[in-house]
User: Which sequence fits this backbone?
């Protein structure tokens, strides 16, 4: 009998000192749910002038870093601030950001020896991470339903409503209505009568969301809150 082949996990091997010690550290820089393009991101104290990233249309940056605490220096058209991250082989987490107008989304790491990784990303969404919906902003935010723009053209599902139910999972539940999928855009209506006031919602986007080029979105969780809402 042939021996069973074992799939080696680079992250687990790194914990044992057998895997990579440097990683591509990546994430999306966002403001009000929209990717910030053209921002310059570098590692504070780095002596490598080539280890600089300019964010794309989804706000995606990618730098080579190592395990531990990493401080990023960000320049958005002259607005400068810092982002502090914790980098482990298994996860990248946000410690702090010095400008609260911006958020960091979809953090992750991959071995720096891997080929250049590209992503299917959200470029903008409504709702977005950290959004608080209330009477004052309901009409300007989610009154017309939920909408998502992606960095590439999406596959067209045969049944948009079924595809939505499989790939946009929300807790607590809401009643979704008609769905439109076209190009890089997804829109679906929400029954406003099913919102619960003073409630945090968690919307999970599943890897079944795919582009025509074959990329899948990374599992993504968007947390937003329904505050005082009288409809």
Assistant:
């Amino acid at each position: 009998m042939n021996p069973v082949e074992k799939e080696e996990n680079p992250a687990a091997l790194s914990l044992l000192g057998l895997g990579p010690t440097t990683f591509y550290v990546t994430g999306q820089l966002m403001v009000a749910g929209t990717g910030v393009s053209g921002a310059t991101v570098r590692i504070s104290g780095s002596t490598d002038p080539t280890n600089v990233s300019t964010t794309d249309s989804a706000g995606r940056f990618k730098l080579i870093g190592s395990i531990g605490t990493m401080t990023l220096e960000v320049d958005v058209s002259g607005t400068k601030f810092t982002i502090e991250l914790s980098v482990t082989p298994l996860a990248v987490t946000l410690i702090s950001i010095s400008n609260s107008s911006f958020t960091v989304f979809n953090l992750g790491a991959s071995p720096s020896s891997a080929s250049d990784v590209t992503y299917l990303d959200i470029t903008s969404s409504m709702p977005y991470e950290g959004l608080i919906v209330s009477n004052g902003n309901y009409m300007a935010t989610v009154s017309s339903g939920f909408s998502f723009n992606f960095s590439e053209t999406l596959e067209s599902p045969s049944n948009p409503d079924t595809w939505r139910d499989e790939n946009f999972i929300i807790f607590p539940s809401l009643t979704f209505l008609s769905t439109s999928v076209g190009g890089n855009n997804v829109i679906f209506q929400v029954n406003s009568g099913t919102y619960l006031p003073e409630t945090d919602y968690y919307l999970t986007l599943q890897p079944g969301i795919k582009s025509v080029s074959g990329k899948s979105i990374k599992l993504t969780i968007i947390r937003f809150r329904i505050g005082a809402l009288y409809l």
User: Anything to note?
Assistant: Helices lie at 10-15, 160-167. The chain is about 5% helix and 45% strand. The first helix runs from residue 10 to 15. Residues 41 and 221 are 24 Å apart (CA to CA).
